[in-house]
Amino acid sequence: MASIRQDCETRLSGMKSVRADYESEVRDIARFAQPARSRFLATEKNKGGRRRQANNRLLDPHGILASRTLTNGMTSGLSSQSTPWFTLGVADDVMELEGVSTWLSDVEKAMYAFLAKTNFYSAAKTGYGETGLFGTEATVMVEHRDKGAVCHSLTFGEYWIALSDAMQPDTLYRFCPMTVRQAVMSFGDKVQPWIRTAFDRSDYEKDVEIYQAIEPDTAGRFNYRSVYWDASDDRDATLRISGYSEQPFWAPRWDVSGSDVYGTAPGMEALPALRELQLQTKRRNEAIDLMVHPEKIVPPHVRLTGQPRSIVTGNGVLKDNIIVPYQMPYQAVEAIRQEIEKCKEQIDALFYADLFNAITNMRGIQPRNIEEIAKRNEEKLTQLGPVIERVSTEKLMVVIDRVFSLMERGRMLPPAPPALRDAEVKVEFVSILTQMQRAVGIGQIERSVSFVGNLAGTFPEAADKIDIDQTIDEYAQRAGTPSKIIRSTADANKIREQRAQQVQQAKMMEAAPALQQGADAARLLSETDVGGAPLLDTLLGA
Question: Could you tell me the pTM of the whole model?
Fold first, then answer.
């Protein structure tokens, strides 16, 4: 029977063959759009080494600017530290119970504070950049005794993923090289003898080839199993086997074709334009160089100082008659510049840079608000919609589950009210981009209510078709309104009943003087004697 390490290495071999189809393309994207990211630009290409090579093929950094715009736009639009991006809720009937809304609000605040203490937001930004460039990101969140949690943001080339039967990433293998000191601090006496020897003689900085496997635990001891091993160790041993109660990593994809494991991304779509941009930039530089230093034919034994290139000697050429066989026309530089601008426009469009710069690119003095941007970019936002949904499912939902579980085990959450004992807590994402996606639905609600309101001016019964409470709840949900500021239908009905009672009491108070006068008149008639009988009885025919 194969050992745990043998099982992991066999599976890793298969995962490596799947990823191999993407590596050449990713290498080119990294060269032209983000040379600091992919491990394929390192000297240890196959292992994901940590040393970088010089990138001499990058002549125009516009790809870096477009990628940065996409990264910052996704970060601020989906999970910004400065604005709320998720809320917690339960079913409407449970939300109306005592203490539920207050507990949910307190938990939200505690989770936001927990995330702020960690490096989650910087790791999330790095991850959005990875997703936009290479189609896939991977981040592992581990517990930390001081910070609560630490996120290890991985770059393409140092990890491999696999999918569950639900076609979502549930397995992550990664190469995590450590120094001798880090290996001893992490695994103690489990390390190889040479590592302990190097540590004892203070040779701390030698590299150790460590791998980690995170996958569902089929044995049932944990929900997810973690296995560390030293690939250079011939003893078929593992360094540590542990587990997690919930998925400790996320690996969202930008877009997926069929049953592909790794995603496709704007970086892949923009690669032809990135290559063309480098070529045209090189041609422009060569054209300018030929204009400044054109090729010259000079007599033998003549030396031109300050012009060390493009000099050719020729017999029959007079000293005072140096020949320039071809002069680069100045129009060539402008023609090449136009081609360069076309490439940059294509790159901006493919990286959605024009979408995220929508406010900057607005012409004239106009209001800058979410509704206007949504209307101007509705088509582009529709294209971005599936990406937002995939990020919410494969990344942000995993983050919320992981953080909630860590805080619950660490007793960092307030006690839940009895009403929530069997209730399911729901997560609602309310980021800027999510609200912009929902703005279309908000417009439909506004148009419908406005239409019915105008119709009710002539046909009052038309107003009966609008369920006001449901309309408000739906509008608030789409707008991402905090649940605490929207009253439940039951609370609203109580207020309406109290208001109706107050109106009834006011009417009774207004009618009180008339009733008092009527009572006085009746008493006077009853006390007036007419022929031995009260006048009131005579008037009533009694």
Answer: 0.78
